[in-house]
Amino acid sequence: MYIYFTAVFVGLLLLSNILSVKLFEMGSIVLPAAAIVYVITYLMTDVIGEVYGKKAARRTVQAGFLTQVLAMVFIYISIQLPPAADFQSQAAFEEIFNGSFRIILASLVSYFVSQHLDVSIFHTLKQRHGRKKLWLRNNLSTMTSQLFDTVLFITIAFWGVVPTSVLLGMIVSQYIWKFTVAAVDTPFAYLLVRWARKYEEKHQSELLKAS
Q1: Is domain 2-210 annotated with CATH 1.10.150?
Q2: How far is residue 174 CA from its own chain's centroid?
């Protein structure tokens, strides 16, 4: 099950990078479409860490980082390839996929710091509480790491580009959204952890019978 959770994590991570070019409004809050996807990656690392341990969660985070770097390299190569004569969408293709270096740097830095912080906080609490209080470590680790993720990304990507008041407004609005999702996803964390543990117990039982 670990490999499937990691695949979902990496897939959602790559999808969030693609969706980030689309902005949408929720009342007075403006968010990138990636916001509906990226927050779920924290749920996945929490579930992986809860069932498979801290090392497994860190491996998943590292796999996601490496995959993002590789994706950006191949996207850049794809953009530079000469378009076919019948391909009339090169400009649109570049607009969607050709993020600026500053945005890419902001994404990688915020991802690397926040995801590792999420794993560290989660497992510090897990060592203290064991299997109890999953709701506490799921929420506290995600809400804290998402704050760092939001502040780092917005600051690196937009410092000096937009007024400070707008910068602070972007940080606050995006964090409110991430905070809300982190609070709502707790039942799903319990559900996925229970499902994964049952799967692993059944798998181990079948291996013992086979041996």
Answers
A1: no
A2: 14
Arithmetic mean of pLDDT, 128-141: 85
Predicted pLDDT of residue 210: 67
Q: Dihedrals φ, ψ of 105, to 5°?
A: -60, -45
One-letter amino acid for residue 166 of the chain: V
Question: What does each C-alpha distance from 173 to 26, 29, 40, 179, 190 come to in angstroms?
Answer: 10, 6, 18, 10, 28
99 exposure class (CB count in 10 Å sphere: 0-12, 13-18, 19+): buried
How far from chain centre, in Å, is Cα 114? 9
**Sequence spans of domains, the chain:** 2-210
| Calpha distance 98→78 (Å, rounded) | 10
Element spanning 185, H or E: none
The predicted-structure confidence for 165-194, as pLDDT tens digits, reads as follows 878 888 888 888 888 888 888 888 889 889
* pTM greater than the 0.70 cutoff: yes
Residue 101 clears pLDDT 70, i.e. is over it: no
**Gap between the Cα atoms of 185 and 187, Å rounded:** 6
